[in-house]
Every structure is written in structure tokens, then in C-alpha cells.
Amino acid sequence: MTALASRPARTATPGTGRGVTHVIAHACVAVLAAAGVALVYYLCVCTAPGQSVDTLVMRGADVHHERIEQVLRRALDATTLVSLVAVCLVAAAIGVVRRRADLAVAAAVLVLGANVTTQLLKTRLERPDLDGFPAPNSFPSGHTTAAASVAFALVLVLPFAIRGTVALGGAGYVATIAVATVSAEWHRPSDTVAALLIVLAWGALGSTLVRARRAGITGVVARPNRTAMLLFAAVGALGAAGALLGLGAVLLARWAAPDLVPGSLAFAAGVAAIIAAVAGVFAIWIRLAAGDRRG
């Protein structure tokens, strides 16, 4: 655990001006994440090429590996409303026990806001039939939103000493859930990426509220765990490279021989994109969650 502990800064005197700057920075992350959701929706739902590639990835999700299918199925089965509510209550209790009601409130805002937003978007957004695969709108993914919001809430309320470990474990769980929804053909990759951005937007909003409340307090400033950040950066970079290469190969194959595009390659590229997105949002989140005086 200590290897992934967040470390305090050597100096500890942030002033009010610096605190306000942090508040603005967190608010900007929330706005950018929300804009990212709109961009993903436009590119992957409202354009024919985006829909085509997104659906191709989902329909290529024939794993045909008993152990992998079993893990993915169990992960989905374990993500129930009861289990998620229980974890949320635990997160709130941790905030109260630590005498950090602000963190408990921010965690509640994060979980409720993200999940309500996802359900509203899923029921109200339209999905035009541009790829010849008519289906009701599935954008964004409710399972991915639920899993990511609970993981974010735990990272926010837990002490700094274990946040890095929890973030890594939470990222692994969220990536498994996101991939499982695509493997089960419940969602397309864009649905899961949008869900992650929705959770990041509400997480940034919650951390903005916490920062605003403590803007004038001086004290030790905790830095995000370096080991966790490096791991997220490495995994994110590898995932992004794999996604770009894989999707590039899929697009080239569709242009050269549309009937011979390998579904497994498309699915692998989609999985790489999901892993990159998970690593990216969790890296941003542990950076946003750091910085409180009391650990």
C-alpha cells in the first residue's frame, strides 16, 4: 500500500489566489469532459462512418474463449443496483467517519449526477440509422457509468495513503465492465467512452465544490501518486497506439475489401480504445482528487 501512497508536498502554503486558480481549473475539466461527450456523440452516432466502425467493433465481439467469457459475464452479473448502492453508502460513511462531510457530499453529487445524466441521455437522444443496423439508442452505457462513478467516489473519500491502489483496482474493474458490455453486444465502444467522460465531468464538478470550500485554507498539499500516474500513462499510451493502429487497419480493409474485414481485429481495436479511455480518465481523476490538506 505504501508504494502507492500519495505524498505531501514539501512546502505547504497555498494562498487564496492559488486556491481560486485550482477551482477554475477543476471547473474547466468538467466543461471539457462534457464537451467530449457531445463530440463522441456527434462523431460516433450522428455520422455514417462513425456509426459503421462503432457497430463493426461491437459485432466483432465474439471472444470464443470460455475463461474470458466467464470473467466478463461474472463482472456484469456482479454489477447490480444493490451492490452499487451498498458501495455508495460505504463511501458516504467513510467521508463522515473521516469528518469530511464535504467529500461525502461531493461523492453523492458525483454518483447521482452521473447516473441520472446517463439515463436521461439514453432515453432522450436519437440514433439515426446511418449504417444499416437499426437499433435503439444505447448511448451512453449505464453499466460503465455506474461502475466508474462508484470507483471515483471511493477514490475521493478514502485517505491519500491508499488512493493510488484503489484507483488502479477501480480502473481494472471499470475496464472489465466496459469491455464486457461491448462483448455482450449491449453497447458500442462509444457508449462506454461517453459514460467515462460523463463520470469525469461530474467528478470534476464535485471536486470543484470541495476546492471552492477549502480555497482559503493553507496546509499540506498532497500530490497524486507518481507510480499510479506512470502506470496510467503507460497503459493509456499503449492502448491509444493499439486503437489507432487497429482502427486504421480496419478502415483500410473496409476500403480495399469490405466483405473481408476481420471482426476480431475491430473488436481488439475497440478494447484498446476503451482501455486507453479508462486509463486517461482515472489519471485525470486522481490528479483532481489530490490536493486536500487533511489526508
Fold and architecture overview:
With 295 residues, this protein is mainly α. It has one domain. The chain is 74% helix and 1% strand. The protein has ten helices and two strands; from the N terminus they run βααααααααβαα. A two-stranded antiparallel sheet has the order 1-2. The longest helix is centred in the last third of the chain and has 31 residues, at 226-256. The two termini are 15 Å apart.
Put simply, the count of helices is 10
Shape, per Cα inertia axes: globular
The whole-number mean of residue pLDDT values reads 81
Q: Span from first to last CA?
A: 15 Å
Please give the domain count. 1
Specify the biggest β-sheet. 2 strands, antiparallel
Instruction: Decide which structural class fits the backbone.
Output: mainly alpha
Work out the radius of gyration. Answer: 20 Å
How many strands? 2
The percent range for strand residues is under 5%
Weakly predicted, low-confidence segments:
5-16
| Secondary structure: helix percent | over 70%
Biggest sheet strand order reads 1-2
**SSE series:** EHHHHHHHHEHH
Kindly list the characteristics that best describe this protein.
single chain, 295 residues, mainly alpha, 2 strands
Structure described in brief:
With 295 residues, the chain is mostly helical. Helix content is 74%, strand content 1%. Strands 1-2 form a two-stranded antiparallel sheet.
